[in-house]
């Protein structure tokens, strides 16, 4: 009727203002115009059961003293706020609204306000304690405060899920942080332990003095630097190494300790094989000396750690290509002078001896008692003591 004759339907009651009861049940009505009941001040019974109404779209206030609004067996899932306000505008002791037989919903958060309204004592819904709704499990249940509690849980579920996600994320981050800290601490402890072990092993090998550990240091220098080596290097270096290794045996050999009657290069190779570390007093005089450049050439083919004693400002352009590479990656102890007569070294010889033992320990090839992770098992000879005088 409504779909076919909507204009006629809208003015149906215009000239029937004295009607008290109207029965529009089972007319396939989906909605009623807002002003349909205007002027029906005597209306008491409005029977709309068995239609397809889903919301209250008409003005109830204009019905005067309406007592019964029968909306049973329609298509109402949940009354909107506007629909509830239309009913509440006519709340009186005589008004009764019938919702029996409607497919009421209590499955989603949007149903909460409607169910809460249904349970209010002031709501004019008759038989409300026997009404049922379809829950989120597609089951019918009687509408009670338990229904309201379930809807609260449904409404809070997204927040709870966010909390769970946040807490899970935080827990995961914290766990990963703890793992990183533990692993990092463990790796540092392993590295420290193996470092201490290598130092102890280096000290033990140098104390015994066999094979490649017969001498701690093989020292290169040119003839022009003999004075500074004799006055400042040899005795101080020997004494510092003796204190560090607690031994009184000879620990330093030099390029000057060549036995007469033997091949110079053969003697140098022999001393290199018997020494744990190669050191060189690097000066402009050394770089200009073809003899010194020839003497140090065998060191190019050794994998022993290297240490430079740099005498003042040198002309780096005089370095041969392989010696320049070695110079860049090796530790240096720099000697300087202010008056060009006396060279001084500001660091202590004990520090130099500690550096030498550490370089020798780093070069020891052995399997650690505690295995280090592969990415940490490197043998970098980065400068650990670089003193500018």
Give the total of domains: 2
What do the pLDDT scores average to? 85
The low-pLDDT segments are 366-389
Q: Which structural class best describes the helix and strand composition?
A: alpha/beta
Main-sheet strand order equals 9-8-10-11-12-13
CATH architectural label of the largest domain: 3-Layer(aba) Sandwich
Main sheet overview: 6 strands, parallel
Proportion in β-strands: 5-15%
User: What's the shape?
Assistant: rod-shaped
- Specify Rg, calculated over alpha carbons: 50 Å
CATH topology of the largest domain: Rossmann fold
**Corresponding CATH superfamily of the largest domain:** Toll/interleukin-1 receptor homology (TIR) domain
Number of helices, where a helix is a run of at least 4 consecutive DSSP H or I residues: 10
* CATH classification class of the largest domain: Alpha Beta
Number of strands: 13
Report the order of strands and helices: HEEEHEEHEEHEHEHEHHEHEHE
Instruction: State the helicity in percent bands.
Output: 25-40%
Family: Belongs to the Toll-like receptor family.
Subcellular location: Membrane
GO molecular function: signaling receptor activity
GO cellular component, one term: plasma membrane
Q: What attributes characterize this protein structure?
A:
single chain, 389 residues, alpha/beta, Leucine-rich repeat, LRR (right-handed beta-alpha superhelix), Rossmann fold, 2 domains, six-stranded parallel sheet, four-stranded parallel sheet, 10 helices, 13% strand, rod-shaped, disordered C terminus
